[in-house]
Amino acid sequence: MAIHEQNYVRYDGPLRQTGAWWTIARTSLRTYLSFLRTKLVLLGLWVIGPLVAGVLILVEYGARGQIAQFTEVTAPSGDYVTYFLQMQAFALAVLFMANGCGVISEDLRYRTFQLFFSKPLSRLDYALGKYLSLLLLGSLITVLPATLLATLRCAFFMQSEFFASVAKQMAIGVGMSALITFVMAAIVIGLSSLTSRTGYVVLSWIGVLMVPLILSGIVGIATDGAEWANLWSLTGSFMVASKSLLSEEVFDGPIWVAWAVLFGTMALGLFGLAQRIRTLEGVA
Amino acid sequence: MLFDLENVHKHYGDFHALKGITLKVPEGSIGLLGPNGAGKSTLIKSLLGLLSFSSGSASVLGYRLPDEALKVRQAIGYMPENDCYLPYMTAVEYVSYGGELAGMPRSESFRRAHEVLYYVGLGEARYRQLEGFSTGMKQRVKLAQALVQGPRLVFLDEPTNGLDPKGREEMLDLINDVKARGVNIVLSSHVLPDVEHVCDSVIMLNQGGLIHYGPIDELKKGGKEVVEIETKDQNDAFEKVLRQKGFSITKDGLRLKITVPENSKRDDILRLAVENDIQVRHFMPAELTLESAFLGLLGEHS
């Protein structure tokens, strides 16, 4: 007896000509979110991280007897936003370690390029879809909470004389959140384009973050804590760039280097992706 | 018209993978045959628009390549030879994803994924993850993703690879049913009986060149007589003699299948055996199978 359903009728409906990139992004994000580890990491970063940080801050200020200053109406400092952004960079790094490193490498490993490129989509659709999937995943712990916090903070200062400066700070904060997501997603996608082994991508991602950070620490010690030592690491450069926009402190080094590090690493990551896509001729 | 190829060439550096193929293939079911390295994969990839021809012009289903490659891929389903899925996806997610990538609306793609999975006999397994699928199930889910968007043409690359005899029979039955529903088939396979079972005509390639295109029945008849012969331990020697006289020969176990050329007769074989002192133990007319016809053509062109 035939295995097939005899009443099957072939699809003869409309087919869309564009938008495959959005299908890839949406499906990839849905796949990431279906993993238990992603859910746990997101929960940890959304709830546990801020909770622990909040408790530590309260304990520290309590120990110094400075809790009262929380209730004082003073001009809000941009430093809070800078600290928040640093936490976001850390959270994003952890999230991408748990998920996202396989964005391209798993397609290489499981040869799913054959599925993608036997369908009517261009290489640009594929690259855009994959990059967007990482951006959306990262935004869940960067842009989304930053926007939420910005809204709450602006609402809090709505009727005060500081509203304009707070709104500016929060706009910068959301923008920088988006920037670090773009940068880190580009680096992860670039690393993932280099190999079919996701484990190696995770290790190299840790290496990309940690090695310069250690180097930055060493330079910092050797220079008695010179601020420009931060420029040796990605997160340090991000902090310097954020401070340059949010703080009135004068930086003792060339600010442009921080921006160059951020945009340079992003460009390198995207170049890695472009190289991989370019060499896919006839994958099927 | 399925394909219209006009003197197409493909070079990989110095390697000439396709050598000036000119071919007009009408709608139907076509077998794509050739030994390893003959250019089958290159031809399939080129027809899918994944590779561009070095020179020549080509169109598939009326769409010009490479300008309308995306339209070609929208009208074509492709079932690759090897596995190409993320193991943690379920069958319905995988097939639905394929449909969406082909341009189907999301809800329609999801609905059709269920239908097509029932069609290929995986209805009960549609919510299982692909990593737990057997080889036969994997082959069927690949076929399902090739069919989901309702293509006019499907490329099947070794669809019976790794299947047991029952699974193979079911798969061929399924492909024949797809064909009966008006879908054109291009079947690339090393298993020639599979091609014979499904296809009406064949394209044969060897070393990048086209050596034959035509209906299978015509190829098997070929207007030529075929004789099956066995000698007393002198097959090799007799083969050599016959080849010198222009006979084309394929080995079939202990016997030789000899295609008699148009300018010779069956009796000439016996005459040559007598002249060369070769003892014939078995001599009877034989039917040319696709396999022997294929090997005969390969022999003629090598």
Write up what this structure looks like:
The complex is a heterodimer of chains A (284) and B (302). Chain A has one domain. Chain A is 69% helix and 0% strand. Chain A has eleven helices and no strands. In chain A, α2 runs antiparallel to α3, α7 runs antiparallel to α8 and α10 packs across α11. Chain A is globular and about 80 Å long. The two termini of chain A are 33 Å apart. The model of chain A has no long low-confidence stretch (mean pLDDT 88). Chain B folds into two domains: 212 residues, Rossmann fold (3-Layer(aba) Sandwich); 80 residues, Alpha-Beta Plaits, CATH 3.30.70. Helices cover 38% and strands 28% of the residues of chain B. Chain B is built from eleven helices and 14 strands. In chain B, β4 and β5 form a beta hairpin.
Please give a quick description of this structure.
The complex is a heterodimer of chains A (284) and B (302). With 284 residues, chain A is mainly alpha-helical.
Q: How is the secondary structure organized here?
A:
The complex is a heterodimer of chains A (284) and B (302).
Chain A lengths: L19 H15 L1 H28 L15 H20 L6 H6 L2 H5 L5 H17 L3 H14 L6 H30 L5 H25 L11 H13 L8 H24 L6
Helix pairs in contact in A: 1-6, 2-3, 3-8, 3-9, 3-10, 6-8, 7-8, 8-9, 8-10, 8-11, 10-11
Chain B lengths: L2 E10 L2 E11 L3 E5 L6 H8 L7 E6 L2 E3 L3 H7 E4 L11 H11 L4 H14 L15 H13 L5 E5 L7 H16 L3 E5 L3 H7 L2 E6 L2 E7 H6 L3 E7 L3 H10 L3 E5 L2 E6 L5 H10 L4 E6 L4 H12 L1
Parallel strand pairs in B: 3-8, 3-9, 6-7, 7-8
Antiparallel strand pairs in B: 1-2, 1-4, 4-5, 9-10, 11-13, 11-14, 12-13
Helix pairs in contact in B: 3-4, 3-5, 4-5
